[in-house]
Amino acid sequence: MASCGKTETAPKGDSATATGTAVATGPRAVDVVQVIEQPLDVELSLPGELNAYQSVAIYARVTGFVKAVSVDRGSSVHTGDVVATLEAPELVAQHAEAQSKLYAAEAQLAAARARAESDRGTFEKLKTAAATPGVVAGNDVVIAEKTADASQSQVTSAQQTVEAVRQALNAIRDTEGYLQVTAPFSGVVTERNVHPGALVGPSSGTSGTSPMFRIVENSRLRLVVPVPEAYTSALKNGATIPFTVAAYPGRSFSGTVARIAHAVDVATRTMAVELDVANATGQLAPGTFAAVKWPVRRSGPSLFVPSTSVTSTTDRTFVIRVQGGKTEWVDVRTGLTSGALVEVFGKLNAGDEIAGRGTDELRPGTDVQPRRLKPAA
After folding, report:
1. 236: number of CA atoms within 13 Å, CB side?
2. Distances (CA, A) of 163 to 95, 102, 150, 166
3. Predicted pLDDT at 39
4. Within a 10 A sphere around the Cβ of 224, how many other Cβ atoms?
5. Of the CATH numbers 2.40.420.20, 3.60.15.10, 3.10.20.340, 2.40.37.10, which one belongs to the domain with range 28-41+301-372?
6. pTM
């Protein structure tokens, strides 16, 4: 009974532990790092497509039958090489008719010149005789002069007729030249859709008619890269850009920036940039997908913070700046990532101290004890 009524006394100096009250603590310790200012120099992987430097679908310029085909898919051709020969019997008849008209027109011209020379001679003789009074009537001299002038006009008309007929004959000869289908430039035949005996004719390709041939120039290629608009400010002609293709794993190729669209596609928000790629050996094929290692640089230095320092909520993205032992939320917009750092844009300055690990639990105005860490490289 005596022991049950005894009260235990806590050890001296340990009253807070015995009563369960928490020990008072100071400001929360927070690891902080400095905002770094340095030039941005990163490399993005962008998709690209290799296209032929020149590509043409060849259609017949005149209606005719295919007489012979001298190339096939994969054949190499040079400028002016005959790739197919056509035949059109109606052109032979048109040529003969035009030649006949030319002979007739030249004969008429010769006759007109003979008459003109005769009439001019008669006029000159009458004019000389009229110098002696009473020998020739004055009216006869006038009539002879008018006749000579008319004959000369007929000569001029006959000359124009001959020239018109000759031009018509030349047009037919040019049309006959279209029976020889030639390569407009050096390259490779990638498509063949005709065989001897087929009837072909002029077509622009809009009606869905397949071309006779398709020729591409593959000794050099165009690498088309859609560059996002955020990275177009530093585009310059002449820059050398590396890229890779799936057909040659582990091997790198390069192209030179040659053409910049200077306009953003509103559908994709990208700007088309063309690179010239030398392909003398023909190992790269048009239509191939390429992974382009696109360098991105800013005109001036950028601010960087560790990626762990950036915090996002439903309505904002921010970092926590520590200044005077108190926290402050600073809204930022992130850019590119460079290793462990991320580019940020906002009301920050180089050297500002921010929380190394951001969290929305660390509310603005909280008293903290900064503990400086070594900045990330």
Report:
1. 9
2. 16, 9, 20, 5
3. 84
4. 18
5. 2.40.420.20
6. 0.63
